[in-house]
Specification:
Blueprint lengths: L9 E21 L6 E14 H10 L3 E17 L5 E7 L9 H8 L4 E6 L7 H10 L5 E5 L11 E5 H6 L7 E4 L5 E3 L2 E3 L12 H16 L2 H15 L10 H4 L1
Parallel strand pairs: 1-3, 1-5, 5-6, 6-7, 7-8
Antiparallel strand pairs: 1-2, 3-4, 8-9, 9-10
């Protein structure tokens, strides 16, 4: 007997995006011109980063994603193939002059299951936009990963930041999740530990955490279970070089 296919949940993704460029090569000598390594390029890969990487993770979890993003920055990483270590990262940042107004998003907001925000402070996402979403759509879950510091203005959102960002924050909201690297994550004075694993590259771990947090919260409506799942998901990502979107099977 045929089974009815489960309807996909719809996500509105808003944020700053970039292209991650990975240049792989080897270092065999030091330059005679200056005390720096000579990088011999082997090959290059490109992957979507920032909000683009969040989108890839959300798609892996089976969401239907509507993405609204700004100017595309570029991050180029030189990676030594022997050690798998970054030698240098070159950032070419682009800023969005005018952030997205809520008027552009209202039609989406009426027909989605959650909002996910990947905010790198490049101009796409304003405090006012997030405040307006919370005010006009109070029952809609909003998950925010941000570089902003006045986080109390994001009250009503589930806000995820790392420990460095927490130390820079001027104010904090009620629902704040702080990722702690290999120690796990903290939420409302409770630390949720991570399993000890061998870390290859932490690039994109926060993006995976955000997407996984959204997935499991919408599934269970329990933040504690969502955090535990997000920790497991990001633990898979950090075992790969560069940004990586794990499958549900890998996380399990």
């Amino acid at each position: 007997m045929a089974t009815r296919q489960q309807k996909k949940l719809k996500i509105l993704l808003i944020g700053d995006t970039c292209t991650d460029v990975y240049q792989y090569g080897i270092v065999e000598r030091i330059s005679p011109e200056a005390p720096v390594p000579v990088f011999k390029l082997s090959h290059q890969e490109e992957k979507p980063g920032m909000a683009g990487n969040v989108q890839q993770n959300l798609l892996k979890f089976g969401f239907e994603v509507f993405a609204v993003t700004g100017a595309v920055s570029t991050k180029t990483r030189l990676i030594d193939m022997k050690s798998k270590q970054h030698i240098v990262r070159i950032d070419a940042d682009k800023h969005t002059d005018v952030g997205v107004p809520i008027g552009v998003l209202r039609d989406y907001l009426k027909d989605i299951d959650a909002v996910v925000v990947s905010d790198y402070n490049k101009g796409m996402v304003s405090y006012e936009l997030l405040e307006s979403i919370v005010k006009e759509f109070p029952k809609l879950p909003v998950f925010v990963d941000t570089k902003k510091t006045d986080l109390a203005r994001l009250e009503g959102c589930f806000v995820k930041i790392n420990n460095t960002e927490f130390n820079l924050a001027k104010s904090i909201p009620t629902d704040l999740i702080v990722t702690l690297g290999d120690l796990g994550a903290r939420y409302k004075d409770t630390v949720y530990p991570a399993e000890k694993i061998e870390v290859t590259d932490v690039t994109g771990a926060g993006d995976t955490f955000l997407a996984a947090l959204t997935y499991q919260y919408l599934k269970t409506k329990k933040m504690e279970k969502a955090i535990e799942f997000a920790i497991k998901a990001s633990s898979v990502t950090v075992q790969h070089i560069g940004v990586y979107a794990p499958s549900l099977e890998e996380i399990a």
